[in-house]
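Example for tutorial group B:
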């Protein structure tokens, strides 16, 4: 089902929207570079090949053109620094390039790391992207992982305050005729933004939530859609339930368009084939690329001042283990783990992939899915084949599906 962007920001709100989320990993496997269980950090330039980077960017932009041609609703990409995990140091550059090579695809920058950048410049660049794309920007804002703060020499303890101050500056720059601002980190006087975004009063803003209570509360206070958690399961449910409560406390109400789910999918002739083909790339992502030069553990982030002691107080006891985000859970993944876990994943036949994605969306009450069709250094040919096969065999059913229930609201009413 191709739904052109031209009909009023144009997506029929009652139908599921399907984005492909692309991490844009460096297009060569670096497993051989590891020292023990870890890639060296910082990773020396001697391992970088400019021809691989040139090819990586060209291939992913070509893939995004194919998404546009085949009727996907959007493409998502984010910001990371100094790692082969993803070559999207400036997601705004990628969005500007994609704006010129696509016609209907929504461009989800997920997201710019507000604490690390001069916010007025960010507001200007995003307004330009909205003009370049004729109103197709979705502006995601994130805090970023601890590694990015080391790279940019920003204290982790300032992360939350810088994020909230930058958010106010960017949104005021977009919406006010002339604004002035006196803050702790940035100050401006008598600024009138040119150009202005196409979308009025401002572009859509989404917030990715890993799990911190304060981020959920911020998104709810400002009535901003979220992506709840890095995966499924009970932690995702806890995030959604707490978000629904916070929305209600702020005078808002949870709807299916408040939620988007990150889901890994792989279409094959069988579950066994999907595991055999996708499994090695999933392992490389988990064991080598994920959290390169970074620490994910909630306890360590609290020690560094990045997270508060109460950041997971809303999480039920049975889900606290998942909220700890231990690197070992990723680093120690085996193919046996993949085979076992894939039994519940949307990997396999088109029918199974469709059924499992719809089930996750219905269980969450989410009207948007962000599908990861590639992992690690998956070859371009495999990624393109997945884009085409998913579009042919899964996408029409998803885009025809309506999410009718909001389980989190039902739980609040009980």
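The residue assignment follows.
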């Amino acid at each position: 089902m191709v739904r052109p962007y031209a009909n009023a920001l144009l997506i029929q709100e009652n139908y599921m929207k399907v984005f492909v989320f692309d991490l844009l990993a460096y297009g060569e496997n670096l497993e051989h570079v590891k020292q023990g269980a870890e890639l060296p950090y910082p990773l020396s330039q001697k391992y970088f090949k400019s021809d691989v980077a040139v090819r990586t960017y060209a291939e992913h932009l070509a893939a995004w053109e194919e998404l546009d041609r085949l009727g996907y609703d959007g493409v998502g990409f984010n910001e990371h620094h100094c790692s082969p995990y993803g070559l999207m140091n400036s997601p705004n550059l990628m969005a500007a390039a994609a704006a010129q090579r696509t016609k209907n695809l929504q461009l989800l920058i997920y997201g710019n790391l507000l604490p690390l950048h001069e916010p007025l410049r960010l507001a200007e660049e995003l307004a330009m992207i909205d003009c370049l794309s004729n109103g197709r920007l979705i502006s995601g804002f994130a805090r970023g992982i601890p590694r990015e703060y080391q790279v940019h020499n920003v204290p982790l303890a300032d992360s939350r305050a810088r994020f909230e101050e930058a958010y106010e500056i960017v949104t005021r720059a977009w919406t006010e005729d002339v604004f002035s601002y006196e803050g702790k980190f940035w100050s401006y006087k008598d600024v009138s933004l040119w150009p202005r975004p196409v979308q009025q009063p401002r572009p859509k803003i989404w917030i990715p939530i890993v799990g911190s209570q304060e981020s959920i509360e911020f998104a709810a206070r400002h009535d901003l859609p979220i992506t709840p958690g890095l995966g499924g399961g009970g932690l995702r449910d806890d995030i959604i339930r707490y978000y629904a409560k916070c929305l209600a406390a702020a005078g808002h109400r949870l709807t299916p368009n408040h939620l988007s789910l990150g889901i890994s999918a792989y279409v094959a002739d069988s579950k066994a084939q999907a595991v055999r083909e996708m499994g090695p790339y999933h392992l490389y992502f988990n064991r080598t690329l994920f959290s390169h030069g970074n620490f994910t553990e909630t306890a360590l982030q609290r020690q560094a001042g990045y997270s508060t002691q109460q950041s997971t107080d809303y999480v039920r006891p049975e889900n606290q283990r998942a909220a700890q985000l231990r690197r070992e859970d990723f680093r120690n993944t085996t193919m046996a783990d993949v085979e076992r876990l894939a039994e519940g994943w949307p990997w396999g036949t088109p029918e199974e992939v469709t059924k499992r994605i719809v089930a996750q969306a219905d269980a969450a009450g989410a009207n948007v899915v962000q599908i990861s069709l590639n992992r690690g250094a998956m070859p371009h040919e495999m990624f393109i084949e997945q884009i085409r096969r998913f579009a042919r065999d899964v996408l029409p059913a998803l885009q025809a599906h309506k999410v009718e229930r909001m389980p989190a609201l039902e739980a609040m009413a009980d």
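The CA atoms of residues 273 and 323 lie 32 Å apart. Compare this with the pattern of hydrophobic and polar residues in the output above.
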